[in-house]
Amino acid sequence: MSDLFDAATLSLLLDVVDAGSITSGAERANMTVSAASQRITKLEKSIGQPVLVRLPRGVQVTEAGAVLVERARLFRREMRAARGDLEALRGLERGTVRLGSFPTVSASLLSDALKSFHHSQPSITVQVRSALRPRLVEMLHSSEVELALMWSYAWTEAAEQSLSLVPVATDRTVLLVAADSEIEDNVTVRSLRSAQWIIRNDRHPASEVLFRACAAARFEPRVVYEAHDYQEIEAMVAAGVGIAMVPELAIAHHRPDVRMVRFAGRDEVPSRSITIASLARRQYTPAMYAISRAIHDAARSIAQRGQVQRV
C-alpha cells in the first residue's frame, strides 16, 4: 500500500478520468501511453482492486477509482493554491514578518519605517515584539522572531556568532538640559564636572555611558536622581533637578521644556550601534528583505534630519 498516494500516479488517474481515456490522459500528463498504463496497473495491484474499467472506447471509473479521483482533485487544488501562495510571497502580495525591537528604536526609527512600509506593502503583516536585549537574542534563537533591531556599545558582550548583524545607524549620545539652560552645543564633559546628573536606574547601559565618559574626563559624576524611563528623565531635567546623557533616539520626540546639546567631538562620548539581527543560517524571505529596506530607508531619512549617523 506504500504507493497508494503517489502524487504523480493520482494526478495521472485524474487526467485519465477527466479526459475519458488512457491515451488522452497520458497526453495531458505528458507521458507515453505505455508508461501511463503501467502506472495505473501498478496502482491497482497496490490497492488490490481496479480503479478503471477498460472499455472498447475509453474507460469507466470504478468506485475505488472514484474515491482516489476525488482525493486527487483536492490535492491538485491545494497544490495550485500553494503555488499561488508562493508566487504571492515572491511578488510581495502577502506574507508575515515577526520582528523584535526595543522601546527607544520602536518609538522613533521603527515607527517611521512601519508608516512607509504599511503604505507600500499593505498585504504584508509585521508582528513586533519589544524586549530587552538578552530576550531579543533568545527570541531569535527560538524562532519567535525572524529579525530583531538591537543595540550595542563598544563594550557590550558580543552577540553569539550564530547571529548575523547588519549595521543600520549610529545612535549618538547627547546631553539633555532644560530649555532655559545656558549650556550650548560642543560642550565638553570636563566642563560639566560640577553638574548634577539624572540617570536610568538598575545599571542601565545608558548610565554606564555617563560613568565611562566622566572617568575619561577624570571625575565622578554626582548622581541625584535615578529614573525608571526616559520620560521620567525628561520630566526631571525640565524641573531643573539635573542634566542627563541619553541616546539621541530616546528623545527623538522630546517635550518642549527640554532641549538636546551635542558634545564636543574630541571627547568621543560613547555612541551605540543599531543593527538588524538574524540567525546566520536563516535565509531572508522577500518580506524580510522588504521590512529591512524600509528600516534602512527610515534610518537614512532620520540621518538627513541630523538625528542619527548612517553607517
Describe the structure.
- The chain is α/β, with parallel strands linked by helices and 311 residues long.
- 42% of the residues lie in helices and 23% in strands.
- Strand 8 (196-200), helix 7 and strand 9 (222-227) form a beta-alpha-beta unit.
- The protein is rod-shaped.
Descriptive key words:
three-stranded antiparallel β-sheet, alpha/beta, single chain, six-stranded mixed β-sheet, 13 strands, about 25% strand, 9 helices, about 300 residues
Shape: rod-shaped
Low-pLDDT runs of 5+ residues are none
What is the chain-wise order of helices and strands?
HHHEEHEHEHEEEEHEHEEEHE
What's the total number of strands? 13
Q: What's the mean pLDDT score? A: 90
Helix tally?
A: 9
User: How does the helix and strand content classify structurally?
Assistant: alpha/beta
The largest pleated sheet is described as: 6 strands, mixed
Percent strand? 15-25%
Proportion of residues in helical segments? 40-55%
Distance between the termini: 61 Å
Radius of gyration: 32 Å
